[in-house]
Design a protein that fits this description.
The protein is of the alpha+beta class. It folds into two domains: 187 residues, DNA ligase/mRNA capping enzyme (D-amino Acid Aminotransferase, Chain A, domain 1); 147 residues, Beta Barrel (OB fold (Dihydrolipoamide Acetyltransferase, E2P)). 17% of the residues lie in helices and 29% in strands. Strands 3, 4, 5, 6, 7 and 8 form a six-stranded mixed β-sheet that branches. Strands 11, 12, 13, 14, 15 and 18 form a six-stranded antiparallel β-sheet that branches. The protein has a four-stranded mixed β-sheet with strand order 1-10-9-2. It is elongated and about 65 Å long.
Length: 368
Amino acid sequence: MNHVDLPVNPPVKPMLAKAVAGIPERTDLIFEPKWDGFRCIVFRDGDEVVLGSRNERPLTRYFPEMLEPVRRHLPERCVVDGELIVATDDHLDFDGLQQRIHPAESRVNMLAEKTPAAFIAFDLLAIGDDDLRNEPFRVRRARLEEALADTEPPIHLTPITTDHATAARWFTVFEGAGLDGLIAKPADDAYVENKRTQLKIKHIRSADAVVAGYRWHKDGKGVGSLLLGLYNDNGDLHHVGVAASFTAKRRGELVEELAPLTEGALETHPWKAWADAEAHTAEEGVPGEPARMPGAPHRWSGKKDHSWVPLRIEKVVEVKYGSTLNGRFREVTKVLRWRPDKTPAECDFSQLDEPVPVGLHTVLDPDD
């Protein structure tokens, strides 16, 4: 890891936000777009650059293409909080961003050219010998604007507004570029590491989905998550995400409730091939398919057990979700209610509420 000598040194746990319903009617808030990328705190000390992550594991080796722009556009000595993103066809590409985390240096370098990242700056923790963390956000933002006055892509300064009508418009329009809501920051707040003192306003929707299986909870005593499926126009059932966040009592109840659906489930299950041992060790799904296998490990999950219990395709659940990405729920969904009045065949992609597409340039230059 590179070594830097700054007023604020790595590792730093970034400031966080708690979810709220709707745009708060407060006059002390500064609104920003909520970027869907990797949180990254950039430390620059002359030629030394460290790209810190929210889990304290540096991102520097995975994004070598960012080092030269950071040295060219950021102040000689600074600590800047922001987000690493990847854009494809003027739209946020989180799948492409995830692929950037790879153990092989040759692949890292290839992807740096094929899917280069950009950095969205939204807070300034230090500049020169000044530690700004105890300064109000409005002061830190003003210093950030001054520091990045002449910046150019791939370094961007996120737009802000204090106008509620503008924030409401951004909330609706920017989703079309792949963003998933707004961040509201109290103007007078200091920068407090790892605390949820900021606010996030996200898109919340519901959909009916097939319950095609479940994974055991990590304690082995109940259902940890339900595997959800939706049908495409060809009648194929695609894995679109999971529903979780059950109480310990409910996890045990679900095992009993779902037990009758396990009998003979695998014989005609549309995901039968995914139960093979080879499928469980595959890193990615079939090229061209919009969803990964339910049991396939992911490079972010390490050795976590992702084995699953198939269920007969009979049960439907209504889930709350925020947004979708490439045919999948972007976040873990929450169960709203069971839908005994619905048949699995009614659970298709057409019910999903997709935003009107807009270019990423609309977010970076909202007044253009």
